[in-house]
Amino acid sequence: MPLLRSSIVFRSVYGRRFLATSATGGFKIPVIDFSRFRAATSTTEKQDTANEIVSAFKESGFVYLSNHGIPTETIRNTFHKSKEFFDLPEATKTKLAWEDPRANRGYVQIGRERVTQSADPNEIAALRSKAPDYKESMEIGRDWDSEWKNQWPQDSDLPVFKGTMLHFFQTCHDLHVEVMRSIALGLKLEPSFFDEKINEQCHNLRLLSYPPVSRSLLKNDGQARAGAHSDYGTLTLLFQDSVGGLEVQNPHTGAFVPATPIPGTIVVNVGDLLSRWSNDVLRSTLHRVVAPTTPAPSEMTPRRQSIAFFCNPNFNAEVSCLPNCSPPPKYPTVNAGDYIIGRLAVTYT
């Protein structure tokens, strides 16, 4: 049954007004003002925002975070440098090619990755052959890693790219820590519960470019700019441009609902490992990127840029059901690094 997306509407939670996208069936992604958590001087003051975030993650697995503390100019400059990278000659980019799921660093050309929920390498290979993802990406990890090194373009090819991305990486980690503290508080844990489980910054900064592609091609069976999938870690911080195309699955109906870009916000969603930690109290929701909906669409989709910061636990962390999250556990204890590397290993060629 098709869903009709409403306009952006005002609703009220805990006596406060906030924006939400909605669709028939009651599905919504709330806009949550994070400044109230950041500026609060006591746990009691933080509690309302923490409750809003956890409530949204229980229902849809997604929020729009406003007043998050990352300056607009920082985001704009990172997008600018990302575009400059993807505008480099293909031969320059392929010198930095992604090589190993344990490193998860470097350039990924169009068609190499096929995101999906499947863990079967043969099934994924068939999907990639039939309907590859129409995107390219640049993967960046923590730069001080003693074993796995980032692959940076030469300064002569792209000045200050490295410095821009390392600053953004640290900025996103700092926000991740704050959001995880709000989640801990909303789950009735000590706010610092996750601090020592995420402090090694085993994250992945992914720059994404979706080149123009024929809309008719995206209508083929299984074809998308990025196929339906969940993310792997704790949270994803997604920075969108204005083009659109991100869709989130309504977990109650199975239909996909547009997550329309809202200026000044970051889309934040729950990943698999946080969902496992919470025994599925918090939802890791399927999402995809398709052709954007426009009033008078042309045959070719516009170019789309986004930046995803995939937040992960420390790779030595053991993820098991939190004692206050509806035992008995649904999942066995899993090592965070093994889980993420295992998912990556079958996703790429």
From TrEMBL:
Pfam families: 2OG-FeII_Oxy, DIOX_N. The keyword Cell division does not apply. Residues 198-313 form the Fe2OG dioxygenase domain. GO terms for molecular function: metal ion binding; oxidoreductase activity. It comes from the Eukaryota. Keywords: Iron, Metal-binding, Oxidoreductase. Coiled coil: none annotated. SUPFAM superfamilies: Clavaminate synthase-like (SSF51197). InterPro entries: DIOX_N, IPNS-like_FE2OG_OXY, IPNS-like_sf, Iron_ascorbate_oxido_reductase, Oxoglu/Fe-dep_dioxygenase_dom. The keyword Isomerase does not apply. Belongs to the iron/ascorbate-dependent oxidoreductase family. PANTHER family: 2-OXOGLUTARATE (2OG) AND FE(II)-DEPENDENT OXYGENASE SUPERFAMILY PROTEIN-RELATED (PTHR47990). This is Clavaminate synthase-like protein.
